Sequence to fold (826 residues):
Amino acid sequence: MLKRKVIMAIADGLGDRPHPLLEYKTPLEYAQTPNLDRLASEGITGMMNPISSGIPVGTDMGHLILFGYQPHHYPGRGPIEAIGIGMQVEPGDIVFRCNFATVDENGIVVDRRAGRIREKTDEIAEAINGIEIEDGIEVFFKPATEHRAVLILRGNGLSDKISDSDPKAPHDGKPYHQVEPMDASKEAARTATILNMLLKKSHAILSSHPINMKRNAEGKLPANFILTRGAGKMVKLEPIVQQLKVKGSCIAGESTVLGVAQLAGFKPITDSSMTGNIDTNVELKARLALEEIAKQDMVYVHIKAPDVKGHDNEPFEKAKAIELFDQMVGLIVQDLPENVYLALAADHSTPCEVGEHTGEPVPILIHGPGIRRDRIMQYSELDCAHGGLGHLTGNEFIRTLHGLIGVVKKQGN
Amino acid sequence: MLKRKVIMAIADGLGDRPHPLLEYKTPLEYAQTPNLDRLASEGITGMMNPISSGIPVGTDMGHLILFGYQPHHYPGRGPIEAIGIGMQVEPGDIVFRCNFATVDENGIVVDRRAGRIREKTDEIAEAINGIEIEDGIEVFFKPATEHRAVLILRGNGLSDKISDSDPKAPHDGKPYHQVEPMDASKEAARTATILNMLLKKSHAILSSHPINMKRNAEGKLPANFILTRGAGKMVKLEPIVQQLKVKGSCIAGESTVLGVAQLAGFKPITDSSMTGNIDTNVELKARLALEEIAKQDMVYVHIKAPDVKGHDNEPFEKAKAIELFDQMVGLIVQDLPENVYLALAADHSTPCEVGEHTGEPVPILIHGPGIRRDRIMQYSELDCAHGGLGHLTGNEFIRTLHGLIGVVKKQGN
Fold:
């Protein structure tokens, strides 16, 4: 078998719809993308539905699939975020996404984000990390970006079938919720009790924490409460790299993507200049992608900005973000070794006019040695819809790439 | 319902990739194929993944699907090979692929193929066929091509969860393996014991067999041992012809294809002039296909040569093999009755540059009465990727044909 490799360049939220401000072109059609179009004219294209037609997916689910898992392997957002911020997550762990919040003396949530706190959340978190609630239960707590954090409960007989303490009201001013079991199991009842005790105890600790005292003195909202949501039990997942006996890396700025990558067994590579926005360092990303593919079988390189601009309904900005993606891809193509496939993909569509992820398919492309070149000359939602790969699910797309690098087992003899 | 029939012409291993020696055309694009292209311009085309994108299949699996089974019906290579050489295989039978081999007095495998023995293997096999090992266990043994043979154990309480006696070393000079149970069941333990007794007893018989004595005298390696591998338990499969209430034939030179055909209930038709290579008798195949379709509902006609040339990385020869396929199809089209669909297919891709089966889709085509003609004018991997049938799985493709001849049950009312 030939020794072949693959780089997948992912433009987050790339897919869009024709937009009136762009002469009824999509941002991808409107953007100047000479590199993407050259790849289209030399490669094979198609469309991809991450799960199936019409089903929107989150960034985590979209990447889970692009990394080679099936949708039913989704472990929940909590475990992915935990891994993304460098926490060790073990099968059976109950993982929560959390906000630092401000509650008043009556338990009313004054601010779900504690004044969008950004500073010293690591010190505040350290006061909760490892607190003792009950024998045999370990507590791990770590801050994520801004007001966000992750909580892990580890121990026997725990369940993720419990409700959120986060009232998630569109406006603040509602009380935080007591955590309730969501099924009749004794595990759920026990976990709810443990979590309520933990929230109460941590509220007491945080209320008198020096950093919060200082915030109070400065007129800032204190981070005196942990709102929990989205309890998820970590499943046992065999890393994709083990299943396929490959080695790989993922270059990204976003912790969700890096979390999924690590779950799948890909080495996370990041840098503070990878900002998750339009000022991200594409030169560095391209250079690292080329350096990594010299050592690895598969390299993922991700750019977040198109998704951000889609959420913000900024079609011109989204087109610019796509031009940034085009630049990055151009830098990679320049020095791409002959035995490396270059695949273009997105995790989902984020049409500007919607400002949310939608279920429309995204354009995909494969360029490289011995590829069956199709008749398509442009990388866009409309052109690729007629491409030679046809319409694939995310799983079919990634398996196509695995097939090209020769790591899919033959069925029959 | 109109009385319609179908001939499927299968070019084994047809699918390929653009090849530098062929001006970056695939062998199918490069070959002169006026008949295939005429059918494309008059018919409807598409692409087929036997199982799903990226998954390579063996010839047996590929044909199992083209004959109408689902991938999970795969009974293993042993049963297919057994049926292909005319053995009766019953559900529950444990079937082994075997080699005649030469072992020395210490059990060292001197040659896994007994000097690539070809002569009188039927006489040697007859000495083992029917030997008695234990009450209630029947033994069937029959030679296949060259040094190969098939062994069947029939009786209650047998298991296929046992290991190989074939050391399958890249080089000879290792001892043959004792057969071991591969799970904790008493059936596996019993089957391993029976097989070890059988191997010992047959070694004794073969060592003093007159043909081997003669080979020894002539300085040839004796076929004094049976190496077994790939134990498979025959499943109960309802023949496709019974499921659909149709009658059919299969014209082929290769025992694997004929084996699958018989499993599916299709009458096997072969001739020594069907060589499995580029000198195969396509006039005879075409004539027989037309003769058979007069009597049957479905006829498969198979040509092996494109796969052989793909394995050998001979793109020009593969193009010639495809021109042979084109000739055969031309002869069939000439005299095709008006009520007969002609379908073109392949079981898998065997790209020259890889020399192995790969998971890339193969072009498919349907020509015949009332067909929805698409815009495609050439039968090739690239043109058909834009065809009107879209991208189908093997099962969807064969069901499309079953639908056209009116043997698919309506769902609902």
In short: The two ends of chain B are 16 Å apart (CA to CA).
